[in-house]
Amino acid sequence: MILVIQSAEMGERRVPLQRGVLTLGRGADCDLVLADSQASRRHAELRRAGERWQIVDLGSTNGTFMSGGRLAPNVARSLRPGEVVTIGSTRLHLVDEAPAPAAVPWAEAPLTPAMPDAARPSLLLTLLIWFSRLLVLAGAAALMAGAQAEWLRLAVTLPLLGNVLNRTISGLESGYAYLLIGVGALGLLLLLVDLLSRRWGLAAGLAQALLGGLTAVTLAFNAYTYYQAGAQTLFGISMLDVLTQYARDLVQITVLPGIYLVGGGLAGLTLGGLLRLIFAGME
């Protein structure tokens, strides 16, 4: 037989009844200490009588209640399993001890799969998920490498004077290098989160796609701003007209691999994030 004690202060306790007499109360010398301000120091006793148990109020101040009535002091009352005894705000009742489950020999024990078959992604879906992750990895790596590489070469050749300017502009000189390195590092961090927990795949994919897409839009907007500045005319002639019509042979601008790495890196990060977002909804 098990005594179940429920109280707001101590939660629920389940005490196997092995002794013939158990005292209940607030006193530290009681067999079962009740953390209840309405319980007396020695409030009640549980007594075994053959195969049954009895509850006895020991003359407590606030009384012991069962079946809606207060028990007479020092009078034993039979307590059947399921009957609730109330002492202050504490509730007690007996339950039959459940038999222990029969042991299953190890050779006959069923093998439980780590994941239900219905919850396992298919082989094709798994390969596609890893493809999206590799795309993000390659994009972030290309973005961080391109941010530090050379972007443009500007050469100016004047008649009689020859080559007067031959300068290479790198990503570090552009002012965008640290932004692109940070975007690439954040993409890798999101990839790590996705690898550590499958349930974060949806959020990681969405964040990667937004990160790559917003960065690409920002760079494109800045490039368009520079274009608009060059297209402004003064006395009917713009800087672009000068470069394309009058100084075409004098000024040469060469696009270097850094620009391609940055463009490819942003495309890989954005596309990989979008694919991960799509495949996460299919897992």
Written account of the structure:
- The protein has 283 residues and is α+β, with helices and mostly antiparallel strands.
- The protein has helices at 123-148, 171-174, 177-196, 201-231, 239-246, 257-280; strands spanning 2-7, 11-16, 21-25, 32-33, 44-49, 52-57, 65-66, 69-70, 77-79, 85-87, 90-95, 150-158, 162-170, 233-234, 237-238, 251-255.
- The protein has a six-stranded antiparallel beta sheet, with no helix packed on it.
- Helix 1 (123-148) runs antiparallel to helix 3 (177-196), helix 1 packs antiparallel against helix 6 and helix 3 packs antiparallel against helix 4 (201-231).
- The longest helix is centred in the last third of the chain and has 31 residues, at 201-231.
- The chain is rod-shaped.
- The chain starts with a strand and ends with a helix.
Write the layout of secondary structure elements.
Blueprint (H helix, E strand, L loop, with lengths): L1 E6 L3 E6 L4 E5 L6 E2 L10 E6 L2 E6 L7 E2 L2 E2 L6 E3 L5 E3 L2 E6 L27 H26 L1 E9 L3 E9 H4 L2 H20 L4 H31 L1 E2 L2 E2 H8 L4 E5 L1 H24 L3
Parallel strand pairs: 3-4
Antiparallel strand pairs: 1-2, 1-11, 3-5, 5-6, 6-9, 7-8, 7-10, 10-11, 12-13, 12-16, 14-15
Helix pairs in contact: 1-3, 1-6, 3-4, 4-6
